């Protein structure tokens, strides 16, 4: 059994070992409860794809795009069916027609088909452009909220989570940012109206 001197040294050593733990437990991890956890970090992470997809803004845009793509597919199917019927009628006429006259009708039909394809491709590109434009508007609108989180947490940097090899969940601010952005801009109807 150690003497009083040895016991005093042991208590002193244990006290010193416990000091950093006690100090760490008493200090807030961040300057605000926006991000909580066991770690304090000058670097936060954010999943930008999830930020957009799970926000009210992103969900609204995706629903509109899905509806527009469904309409476009239905239109493609309807026009394709009409062109198929027209092509069959043209084929049925061929045996009793003058070759030059048939060639003129066939060329006109081919031109019609090509025009249809071009028009439908343009519509698909318009949908893609709408999606890209909406995402740019969202990023611009979200920037101030994300910057506010950076300032409030006292962090120095926010990085894209998918490019980070390993990180703690506690430093990810995606859910917090979604809530803040939803509260600030809602579904973004006043920023980018529904696509016609």
TrEMBL record:
InterPro entries in alphabetical order: Chaperone_Skp, Skp_dom_sf
A GO term for molecular function: unfolded protein binding
SMART domains in the cross-refs: OmpH (SM00935)
Pfam families linked: OmpH (PF03938)
Name of the molecule in the record: Outer membrane chaperone Skp
Organism: Puniceibacterium antarcticum
């Amino acid at each position: 059994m150690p003497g009083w001197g040895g016991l005093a040294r042991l208590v002193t050593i244990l006290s010193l070992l416990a000091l950093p733990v006690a100090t760490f437990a008493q200090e807030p991890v961040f300057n605000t409860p926006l991000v909580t956890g066991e770690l304090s970090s000058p670097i936060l992470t954010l999943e930008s794809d999830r930020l957009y997809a799970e926000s009210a803004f992103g969900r609204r845009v995706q629903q509109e795009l899905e509806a527009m793509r469904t309409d476009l597919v239905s239109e493609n199917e309807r026009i394709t069916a009409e062109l198929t019927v027209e092509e069959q009628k043209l084929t049925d006429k061929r045996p009793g027609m003058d070759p030059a006259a048939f060639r003129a009708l066939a060329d006109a039909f081919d031109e019609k088909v090509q025009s249809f394809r071009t028009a439908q491709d343009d519509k698909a590109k318009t949908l893609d452009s709408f999606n890209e434009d909406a995402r740019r508007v969202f990023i611009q609108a979200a920037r101030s909220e994300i910057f506010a989180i950076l300032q409030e947490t006292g962090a120095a940097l926010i990085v894209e989570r998918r490019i980070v090899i390993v990180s703690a969940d506690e430093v990810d601010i995606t859910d917090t940012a979604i809530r803040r952005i939803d509260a600030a801009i809602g579904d973004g109807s006043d920023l980018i109206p529904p696509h016609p």
